[in-house]
Amino acid sequence: FGRSLAHRACFATQSTHFPELITGDPYNNVSESIAAKVGVNLHCQPNHPLNIIKSKIVSYFDQLHAQGQPKMQVFDNLSPVTTTENCFDQLLIAKDHVSRKATDTYYLNPTTLLRTHTSCHQVPMLSKGIKNFLVAGDVYRRDEIDASHYPVFHQMEGVRFFPELDATLPYEERVEIVKEHLKATLEGMVESIFGKVEMRWVEAYFPFTEPSLELEIFFEGEWLEVLGCGVTRREIAENANVINEVGWAFGLGLERLSMVLFDIPDIRLFWSQDPRFLTQFQDGVITKFKPYSKYPPCYKDVSFWLSKDFHENNLYEIVRDIAGDMVEKVEIVDAFVHPKTNRESKCFRITYRHHDRNLTNEEVDAIQLVVRESLVANLGIELR
Ligand code: FA5
Ligand code: MG
């Protein structure tokens, strides 16, 4: 235990040195392709759209500071390696919550993991007496695959407490004031970034805030969820030694906001090294992304009988590990249960498409073959 505490102290200040991510621990499920993304820090790369949007948000809060709001301290190089304590326990996330499961989260060992959200920094910061801050960082989730979901993405966390609120007011009344302040602050942020855009508030649930809300923006014909937020639960603040003060917190998806701001149609593009992508963006400048290619997609289906503890996130991971950014989307197209044997069958459709070049059918067939073999070998499914 002493050793893990020492590690934690070092994680807090170092961004380039990581302990071994692929450990010998039986619980370790960090894949090579994920490990390769740790430390890349796209949100700190000059002229990268994630860096540009991060700076825009920071400027907005600096502007509020100039108008008399407290200064938000900014952290953008905290280590993504965290603990179940910081990431879940301290945020009152139930022991059996899905986000803790190894099917959803990348673990180094049973108590050390890649952060699933920047909220893992809330309690450590508050405990240090830092009550007004922004944290930007890479987060990791084993998730579905499509144009707006990627297993590594970036979040910005914001936390603000209100010691100035009259402590003789009933707690519920102060919560209401803080909630309205939160909504106005985030609406102002969206407006300062986008000008006029269509947005709406949706009631939500997070174990660490009450009330909780999500903000959606209308983009390309659909409502896109861009952030979650709420009023910090009293016991969380108190556990961090912030007594009888009410505060708000939000966590937003930097990719989602950048997609809207720059018209970037696919989340994989953020990882592109292609100069045709990278040279389109410049610090401090907002331009619309000009697609430089739309190569045709290639679809491949795979049908199989499920194994006992089949979980689709394991399948997504295998596909992603083999096909990398050539895979655009994986979706279930058919499912049924055999009436006699009760066996369950599923068919997944994989959409392959490369952003930078044409894929040949032979090339995709070869990848699909490896995918099929790997599904059998790793998931124990039976191909049909
Ligand atoms: C959270 O992660 C909470 N920690 C947010 C929060 C913070 C709530 C503080 C209350 C107080 P959620 O899982 O909804 O919530 O993710 C937050 C945002 O991250 C989403 O609104 C979305 O913009 C983005 N996001 C979530 N999953 C992905 C993904 N797979 N790819 C890209 N962006 C994602
Ligand atoms: Mg959400």
UniProtKB/TrEMBL annotation:
Stored PROSITE patterns = AA_TRNA_LIGASE_II, FDX_ACB
Q: Tell me the ranges covered by the FDX-ACB domain, including all copies.
A: 293-384
Q: Which SMART domains does this one have? A: FDX-ACB (SM00896)
Question: According to the lineage, what is the superkingdom?
Answer: Eukaryota
Q: List residues of the Aminoacyl-transfer RNA synthetases class-II family profile domain.
A: 137-291
A GO molecular function term, named singly, is: ATP binding
Q: List its EC numbers.
A: 6.1.1.20
Q: Give the reaction(s) catalysed.
A: tRNA(Phe) + L-phenylalanine + ATP = L-phenylalanyl-tRNA(Phe) + AMP + diphosphate + H(+)
Q: Which GO terms describe its cellular component?
A: mitochondrial matrix
Q: Some GO term, biological process aspect, for this entry: which one? A: phenylalanyl-tRNA aminoacylation
Predominant location category: mitochondrion
Q: Which family does it belong to?
A: Belongs to the class-II aminoacyl-tRNA synthetase family.
The protein's name = phenylalanine--tRNA ligase
This protein's species is: Thraustotheca clavata
